[in-house]
Design a protein that fits this description.
The complex is a heterodimer of chains A (264) and B (290). Chain A is mainly alpha-helical and 264 residues long. Chain A has one domain. Chain A contains 10 helices and 2 strands, in the order H-H-H-H-H-E-E-H-H-H-H-H. Chain A has a two-stranded antiparallel sheet. The N terminus of chain A is likely disordered. Chain B is an alpha/beta fold. Chain B has a single domain, classed as P-loop containing nucleotide triphosphate hydrolases (Rossmann fold). Chain B is built from 11 helices and 10 strands. In chain B, the strands form 2 sheets. A 6-stranded mixed beta sheet of chain B has the order 6-7-8-3-9-10, sandwiched between helices. A 4-stranded antiparallel beta sheet of chain B has the order 2-1-4-5, covered by helices on one side. Chain B starts with a strand and ends with a helix. The mean pLDDT of chain B is 87. Classes of the chains: A mainly alpha (264), B alpha/beta (290). The interface between A and B is medium-sized, with 19 and 25 residues.
């Protein structure tokens, strides 16, 4: 059951989007978000949608996966849309009943919000689907590196993120194993009353914490054995080099943003 | 009389996805009461998946698992009962320890069975005796123990449930020879006391050869063979081809046979080899004293 959790959601591939410099991908995603939220006419949103679907097509990631990333948000979207419709009071009244009033503005705002959030989730999913989590944190570290001058611990932060991401699958696997082992000793983890289940959770959590601390200890030792002492002067296995295609992608995105601003 | 049987047992992982894989493929076997069985197989041969079917942790995709002649999945609600009758010790079981004292950790299984205090105490102390754990250690925190001691406590935790069938997945993995002998001794002591059926998964042919009444060999999800050690190790060539090995001493005697010294039987333990060699020497001594 735990195996179904996918965090990081990397979908390996060789498409043009996969090969873009991750630093550019992050910047492009930021521009994309600005683009979605500056446009306030239907045409602007259409441009945003066009951009999203071209990018999805280029990434060669199955469309199904994008639907999977939007689906969990649907209840949240519907609830906010309903609240928006009922709360916004400006504009022409379309329909009213007792104290409830639905206005044109309310409908518009709700519709924009649904489209925007869906596009936002799909667009940012392109980033996480086409970039491995470790590369992503690497790129974040590079982008934030100017902050080092202000004594902000950029490298430490990135290292923590990398380690955390790296250990998610390991810990999930570990949890699976411990659950099986305790079930074999008769623990009521997926059967029994609520209280019995809560009690048997202790038999899973204690070993899990013990093993997480043990792993942390081992990892720290292994890092020290390799003379790890923070980011200063450290070279990298994978150098990030920007290619012409990165600048072209950036320019195209900037062009879309300009179009949206112009049409606003 | 068979205590545990499988009929055409098949298990497929991740059905309906691109990662679909059949881990166990139409396996039918029958295990008798009181037997000591060694389970061998290359990594990924399906042996771990197979043993997780014996206590109902996995449900077969098709086929049946019978315990005492009854299908364990006939009543889904009773599956917990099955786990009390078929005890499973996973690899590196010391990582499942969680209680505050050794006593309470060993008592976790028996307590889940709903036994009364006196019976729990009897079982815990008896298994503690099997594993050679002095009583004064029983009130210590299990996290203060050494790795080998933790392993023995974890195994005792399953033994204390006194399951009719005890399954151990590589109980000696990662231990030094002394620790390995202690654990195997502990398992033998338990077997002597309870006469219950025991299955041990192991990569060490030497270990398997010394304790097993029969050996079960898995290969690529299918049952390769399930027979007495002599017959299994007689097929050394085939066993080597599926990536497993026969005991060192068996290899030596096969080579001797190839070179013309035939001692007549398949040899798979050092003790037996010694006996055969001495007997041959005596015969020769009687025939031609020199």
């Amino acid at each position: 059951m735990l195996r179904d959790i996918t965090i990081g959601q990397y979908f390996p591939g060789e498409s043009i989007i996969h090969r873009l410099d991750p630093r550019f991908k992050i910047v492009i995603t930021l521009i994309y978000i600005v683009m979605l939220f500056t446009g306030s006419t239907p045409l602007c949103l259409c441009i945003g949608a066009l951009y999203t679907f071209i990018a999805i097509a280029l990434s060669r990631v199955p469309l199904k996966l994008f639907w999977k990333s939007v689906r969990p948000l649907l209840p949240f979207l519907v609830i906010t849309a309903v609240i928006n419709i009922l709360i916004v009071r400006s504009g022409d009244v379309i329909w009213s009943w007792k104290f409830l009033k639905i206005t044109e503005d309310g409908v518009n705002i709700s519709a924009y919000m649904i489209v925007r959030i869906s596009l936002l989730v799909m667009g940012t999913s392109i980033l996480t689907y086409t970039t491995s989590p470790v590369t992503l944190t690497d790129a974040i570290e590079r982008l934030l590196s100017p902050l080092k001058k202000l004594h902000f611990p950029v490298h430490e932060l990135a290292m923590m993120m990398t380690i955390a991401l790296r250990f998610i699958p390991t810990l999930i696997e570990e949890t699976d194993k411990i659950i099986s082992a305790q079930k074999a000793r008769g623990a009521e983890i997926d059967t029994g009353s609520f209280i019995a289940r809560a009690k048997s959770l202790i038999s899973v959590l204690v070993p899990l914490f013990v093993s997480a601390f043990r792993r942390a200890d081992e990892l720290a030792t292994a890092m020290e054995c390799r003379c790890y002492h923070g980011g200063a002067g450290r070279t990298r296995l994978r150098q990030m080099k920007s290619a012409p295609r990165d600048y072209i992608a950036l320019l195209i995105t900037a062009g879309f943003l300009a179009a949206v601003i112009y049409l606003k | 009389m068979p205590i545990l049987e499988t009929q055409e047992l098949t298990y497929t992982y991740s059905r309906g996805t691109p990662f679909e894989a059949t881990a166990v493929d139409h396996v039918s076997l029958s295990i008798n009461e009181g037997e000591m069985i060694g389970v061998m197989g290359h990594t990924g041969s399906g042996k771990s998946t197979l043993i997780q079917h014996f206590n109902g942790l996995l449900q077969p995709t098709s086929g049946k698992v019978l315990l005492d002649g009854r299908d364990i999945w006939a009543d889904k609600k009773k599956i917990r009962e099955v786990r009390f009758q078929v005890g499973l010790v996973f690899q590196y079981p010391e990582y499942q320890i969680f209680e505050e004292t050794v006593f309470r950790d060993i008592a976790f299984g028996p307590k889940n069975m709903g036994l009364d205090e006196a019976e729990i105490k009897r079982r815990v102390l008896e298994t503690a005796n099997d594993i050679g754990f002095p009583e004064e250690l029983m009130e210590r925190s299990p996290f203060e123990l050494s790795g080998g001691q933790k392993r023995r406590v974890a195994i005792a935790g399953v033994m204390a449930m006194e399951p009719k069938v005890l399954i151990l997945d590589e109980p000696t993995a990662g231990l030094d020879p002394a620790g390995r002998d202690l654990i195997l001794g502990q398992i033998k002591a338990y077997h002597r006391r309870t006469r219950n059926t025991i299955l041990i998964v192991s990569h060490s042919m030497e270990d398997i050869a010394t304790f097993a009444d029969r050996i079960l060999v898995m290969n690529k999800g299918s049952l390769f063979c399930f027979d007495e050690p002599e017959r299994v190790f007689a097929r050394a060539d085939e066993i080597a081809r599926i990536g497993l090995d026969v005991p060192q001493v068996t290899r030596i005697f096969m080579e001797l046979k190839r070179r013309g010294l035939d001692l007549g039987k398949e040899v798979y333990t050092v003790d037996y080899a010694k006996e055969l060699v001495l007997r041959r020497l005596r015969e020769r001594g009687a025939a031609a004293p020199c």
